[in-house]
Amino acid sequence: MKLLIDSDVFCKLGMAQLLPDAVNHFGIDLQECSRLAALPHMLRKGRLRKRLSPEVCDELIPLSETIPVINQAGSDWLDLLAPIEAIDPGEAQIFATAAEEGLLVLTGDKRALRALGVVEEIREALAGRIVVLESILLVLCTSLGEDEVRRRVQPLIEFDNMVRACFSGGNQNPSEALESYYDHLVAELKPLVLWNPRNGGKE
Fold this sequence. Notes:
Shape: globular
Radius of gyration: 16 Å
Number of strands: 4
Largest sheet: 4 strands, parallel
Helix content: 55-70%
């Protein structure tokens, strides 16, 4: 296990058929990643099904079941995150396991990341290990080409404002827009240090 995938970004990259390409950028496949145990259930009966539609979720369920379930983090790391209201139990599990085992986290949850920055121990353990949606789309634009990524992300347009802005028909340079979003996020989340798509590491 080398990369933890949160449920929201799993759905978005899965809908765009970009998830295998995203993890391949790190030299791994989906069997070397992990996800929350509840993800298939959330796709069958939970909030994701209500938000995305039964048809979309039915297509994502088999993909979710190919990814191993996350290891349980130790209580020391989880206890640091438990008091933070903006970080739900699933996100806490992902961040705590990543900190404990030195793993990358692929996430699209800005609210949780804003809260994460106040926990010094976790922040330091995850420095350069948080891969946001903007950064992985940016590297995919380089590896697959902007036109191909634009084609694949069309199902996300109605669900993600950032994707809509960067890949709208009127935007001729998605990579430039993604870089702008990423740079804004880097500044907003300081002192939390994100994975840098420009050098594969820290800022």
